[in-house]
Amino acid sequence: MKNKLFLLAALLAFQLPLPAKDFNVLDFGAKGDGVTVDTAAIQRAIDAAAAGTNGRVVIPYWKQFLVGTLQLRSGIDFHLNGELIISTNPADYSGDGVIMALEAANLKITGGGRISGRSLEFMTSYDAAGEWWLFREWRPKMFVLTGCTNLVVRDITFGDAPFWGLHMLGCEKVLVDNVTVRNRLDVPNDDGIDPDHCRNVEIRDCDLVCGDDAIVIKSTRQTNDFGACANIRVHDCVIRTQDAGLKIGTETTGDIHDIVFERCKILSGSRGLCIQLRDEGEISNITFRDIKFTARYHSDPWWGRGEAISFTAHPRNPGGKVGKLHDVLVQNVSGKAENSVRINGSEGSRIQNVRLENVAVSFARWTRYAGEVYDNRPTKGLLPVEPHATDGFNVRFADNISLSHCTANWASNAPAYFQSSVAADGSASVKITGFKGESDRHPITLK
Hints:
Layout: H1 2-15, E1 21-24, E2 33-37, H2 39-51, E3 55-59, E4 64-67, E5 70-72, E6 77-80, E7 83-86, E8 97-102, E9 108-110, E10 114-116, E11 123-127, E12 132-135, E13 141-146, E14 149-154, E15 157-159, E16 166-169, E17 172-177, E18 180-182, E19 193-196, E20 199-204, E21 207-210, E22 215-219, E23 229-235, E24 238-241, E25 244-252, E26 256-262, E27 265-269, E28 271-277, E29 283-295, E30 307-313, E31 325-337, E32 339-344, E33 351-363, E34 373-375, E35 385-387, E36 393-396, E37 398-404, E38 407-410, E39 422-425, E40 428-433, E41 444-446
Parallel strand pairs: 1-3, 2-4, 3-6, 4-7, 5-8, 6-9, 7-10, 8-13, 9-14, 10-15, 13-16, 14-17, 15-18, 16-19, 17-20, 18-21, 19-22, 20-23, 21-24, 22-25, 23-26, 24-27, 25-28, 26-29, 27-29, 28-30, 29-31, 30-32, 31-33, 32-36, 33-37, 33-38, 36-39, 37-40, 39-41
Antiparallel strand pairs: 11-12, 34-35
């Protein structure tokens, strides 16, 4: 009996996870005074933690650490309690990002601390007419995590980013949980979270403020084949941006499929929901559900013109190859917008099989910027910014489009260029059932 109990105890002990071993960066020579460049000392702690098992690199509370590029390793928990301040000196960087990892497995980035990006120190001047900052030739990304598996990013805050935020390239089995982003609204290209050629990703309970796209799924052109973007779920996030709230594209060189966005709030953006196909990849099996948004105009340089929903398939360059966008469901989505719901393909790439179910949009104008345009950028194959009336739902070069129990609510003082409730042109099989919002002034016009 004693032997059996001993064996059972040994088996239980074997199955219990080993306690984390802490590697405090102060013990490796980091000063944490916000002035000394602590990159080398923190890297020593990272390398020491990776050499063992279950190592946790601790960035302690109440300290500020000035850093350039840090290369994270497999199997560690990079536990951020204090603050990392990024260096503005290019000599302090060994790559194009601050927090980097290459083919790391079982990597965690956790803690309640913060990474500060010092964005304005990477800018040259403020363009008052454009209402944005003009950037220097060089500026780093906050994160570049490449080819990682079983990646967890949880509870951290980063902000004031000079360029892209959390860029994950070719990663698999990823959880991004309770991440807070506080970028400036007037700095361009400071995306929040960018899964790029990634698979099996969950992004949940994040709170984002950024000038550029908040959460954007893309497939950038790469020399290595990182594969498709697939099986990504984004849910229960709160967003404020001057670009798209929830987006796919514009970089679409590879396939993107089986993506779900749900239960998110877009407090403000230049577009609510957005898919921009501009390259040769195929986008399919996309779901947006249970989302609320506000979409508004901004100054001319900013991308987007207040479109409630914008699904477009346009050539990036004249004669350029464009893939296919098909099988999209938008369900239980509502919001306020200054511009249309757009489903606009092109002659070379017709959008197919889009279902809008219980989509309700209130259309009004409340900003001071000029209206009556659609934003097709980036493209040189069409007018980048196209003069166009504001329809409730506008369908062009798209087939098998279904609007079921959708609503267009029109402001009482809507301008004259707020025209059709539904307008379809060059499209086949546009089915409308249970629509609310049609009137003599705002008819349904199908050509």
